[in-house]
Input
Amino acid sequence: MHRCRRCAADSVINMRQHRLALCEAHFVEWIEQITLRFIKKHRMFEPDDRILVAVSGGKDSLSLWRILLKLGFQADGLYMDLGIDAGCSYSKRSGEYVEKFAQNLSPNVKLHVLDVADIYGKTVPEMASLRRGGKKKSCSVCGLVKRHEMNRVARELGYTVLATGHNLDDEAAVLFGNVLHWEAEYLVRQSPMLPADGVGLTKRAKPLARFYERETAAYAIICNIEYMQEECPFSVGATSLRLKEVLNSMENSSPGTKLQFYFSFLRAKENSLLPEGQRPELRSCERCGQATGAPGLCAFCRLLEPARAASRLGQD
Ligand code: AMP
Ligand code: ZN
Ligand code: ZN
Output
């Protein structure tokens, strides 16, 4: 058993990549302080910002909400019911964890809940089936819907920043995928902080992007946060999981691999070692007003327009 580096009590976690073992209290303090430093370094937000935290009911986003409130930021929550059932009431149960967590917060902290099927008449799996490729495409459709809805709510309710709970395992896997296919445009845009673009995209921040999944899980457990442990049933077999497996195996033999991969990438960006991606000129979607690179309708509105969907089926 290792001893806590700070107080010599028994440690609860040993982070090999940092050569750091900490007790419960010092681990919680460490997570919060490192998060604050990361927020400042990437100029994510200030105390007078109104933050909307997208909470899925999982460990990362619920921990994030707790950390931001503890650090004194103004942070309300948004849960999007995507209508994923898949025989296990996935969305319904995820939402229950979020509601339960929100009940214990101070009354001036709000939780917004939206139901995609109530608003658009279709659940996310139903929207995904509009596209050829059905189940395989559901993760990308789901991502599209979530980004669109988060951004819409932030704009309509006047939030200045959107925060999500992406952790290092998520970010390193995305980075790995983008490097494998040398997706220059995505590489340029992958960042723990994306500024507002002036055409309707709210500033976005990922304050936990430098923590391993194991660390956010430990934080949630130590802080007695009850969270949805199951992965989304549609993510089974997703490419992102296979990328994570490869990175995990490297991390096992060489602790710190993921962190180093991600930090080297951020440093390269800071030093302009990446090519400037050709970012398409953004304009407003004719229907919903959100920023889009395409003329006419944005990807979300095109998805929901049956005539367009039908013609697209013929094309791809
Ligand atoms: P995922 O795309 O499922 O890996 O989730 C990444 C982040 O997106 C989470 O940490 C949340 O911040 C946010 N998120 C995912 N699903 C939802 C949801 N149903 N409602 C609100 N936020 C979500
Ligand atoms: Zn200690
Ligand atoms: Zn649109």
Summary: The longest strand covers residues 74-81. The chain has a mean pLDDT of 91. Strands lie at 13-15, 20-22, 50-54, 74-81, 111-115, 161-163, 193-194, 203-205, 283-284, 291-292. The radius of gyration is 20 Å.
